């Protein structure tokens, strides 16, 4: 530990990796560009091999993680001997992390952050800590043409560069069938699917019957059913570099790309927690654009994107 660096023991940064060393290096390098990065303990989780062909790539990932430890002594590396898959890795890794912290910031190995990402996330975690209506802080916002406020809320939760609190996460169960039954019986599927512009309900159905291995669809459904809200920045503070066919669940597309605004560092937080209709309309427009732009490829992709 560096002398003079105050460690924030209430907040943990968890990074999940598998077999993409180049992506992980970019993720960790960008994280270090955040001035407060060295104030936090960091857990880097590396999933185990599916077969012998993964071993070399995982060794490269481990080397990147160990080199990061030399630059940030507060980092720890956890390597699995067997392959858990992303669903089990995220759920168990985040749950385990909450044994040693009260709030957690979660990144996967393809999430490149703005230098202001941690300032935004940590300020929001502190501001909304006692507000049980807020379940998630997201660093990603979909591409949009209409200017949005510096921060806004939508109902549910998200999964690209995000954070949450121990008491919100603790109620989550990977029970897609149970969540699906509640959404359908309550007549909420239309709203859950952003007014039928994004097939979240179908993803939940597929997760329930084992056609996908998504953890995030249950996270979204759980928060949605609790009337929980997710805070978003008006301009995206992360870029997902994994939509290049390198990931297990990704395809090569730039439709989700949102250039990071390096100057965007002023955030306003409202005590009034309610979904922004303007932002929701921008999300709907984006989802409609996706569907009309590459329908067949997009439908195949949607069954995998939430992992």
Describe this structure in words.
With 307 residues, the protein is of the alpha/beta class. It folds into two domains: 1-109, Spore Coat Polysaccharide Biosynthesis Protein SpsA, Chain A; 112-307, Alpha-Beta Complex (Spore Coat Polysaccharide Biosynthesis Protein SpsA, Chain A). 38% of the residues lie in helices and 16% in strands. The protein has eleven helices and ten strands. The protein has helices at residues 21-32, 55-71, 85-97, 117-127, 166-169, 176-185, 189-192, 200-208, 216-225, 277-293, 295-305; strands at residues 11-17, 42-46, 75-79, 103-108, 111-113, 134-138, 151-155, 162-165, 229-233, 238-240. The strands form two sheets. It has an eight-stranded mixed beta sheet, sandwiched between helices. It has a two-stranded antiparallel sheet with strand order 5-10. The longest helix is centred in the first third of the chain and has 17 residues, at 55-71. It is globular. Mean pLDDT is 89; it is low at 1-6.
Topology summary:
Layout: E1 11-17, H1 21-32, E2 42-46, H2 55-71, E3 75-79, H3 85-97, E4 103-108, E5 111-113, H4 117-127, E6 134-138, E7 151-155, E8 162-165, H5 166-169, H6 176-185, H7 189-192, H8 200-208, H9 216-225, E9 229-233, E10 238-240, H10 277-293, H11 295-305
Parallel strand pairs: 1-2, 1-4, 2-3, 6-9
Antiparallel strand pairs: 4-8, 5-10, 6-8, 7-9
Helix pairs in contact: 1-2, 6-8, 6-9, 10-11
Explain briefly what this protein structure is.
It contains eleven helices and ten strands.
Radius of gyration: 18 Å
CATH top level of the largest domain is Alpha Beta
Tell me how many strands there are.
10
**Could you give the order of the helices and strands?**
EHEHEHEEHEEEHHHHHEEHH
Share of helical residues: 25-40%
User: What is the straight-line distance between the termini?
Assistant: 35 Å
- What is the molecular shape? globular
Count every helix, treating DSSP H or I runs of 4 or more residues as helices.
11
* Unreliable stretches: 1-6
Sheet with the most strands, sense and barrel status: 8 strands, mixed
The assigned CATH architecture of the largest domain is Alpha-Beta Complex
Number of domains: 2
Structural class: alpha/beta
């Amino acid at each position: 530990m560096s002398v003079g660096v105050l460690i924030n023991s209430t907040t943990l940064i968890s990074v999940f990796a598998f077999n993409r060393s180049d992506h992980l290096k970019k993720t960790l390098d960008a994280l270090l560009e955040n001035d407060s990065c060295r104030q936090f303990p960091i857990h880097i989780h590396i999933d185990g091999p599916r077969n012998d062909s993964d071993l070399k790539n995982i060794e490269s990932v481990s080397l990147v993680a160990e080199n990061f430890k030399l630059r940030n002594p507060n980092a720890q590396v956890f390597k699995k001997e067997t392959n858990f898959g992303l669903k089990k890795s995220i759920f168990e890794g985040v749950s385990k992390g909450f044994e040693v912290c009260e709030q957690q910031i979660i990144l996967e190995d393809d999430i490149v952050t703005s230098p202001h990402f941690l300032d935004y996330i940590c300020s929001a975690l502190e501001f909304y800590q006692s507000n049980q209506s807020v379940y998630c802080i997201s660093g990603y916002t979909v591409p949009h043409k209409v200017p949005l406020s510096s921060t806004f809320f939508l109902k549910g939760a998200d999964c690209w560069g995000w954070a949450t609190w121990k008491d919100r996460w603790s109620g989550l169960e990977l029970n897609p069938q149970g969540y699906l039954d509640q959404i359908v019986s309550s007549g909420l599927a239309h709203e859950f699917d952003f007014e039928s512009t994004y097939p979240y309900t179908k993803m939940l159905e597929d997760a329930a019957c084992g056609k996908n291995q998504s953890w995030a669809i249950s996270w979204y459904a759980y928060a949605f059913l609790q009337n929980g809200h997710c805070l978003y920045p008006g301009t995206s503070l992360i870029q997902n570099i994994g939509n290049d066919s390198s990931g297990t669940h990704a395809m090569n597309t730039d439709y989700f790309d949102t250039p990071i605004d390096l100057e965007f560092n002023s955030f306003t937080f409202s005590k009034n927690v309610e979904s922004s209709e303007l932002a929701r309309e921008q999300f709907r427009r984006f989802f409609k654009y996706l569907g009309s732009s590459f329908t067949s490829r997009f439908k195949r992709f949607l069954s995998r994107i939430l992992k």
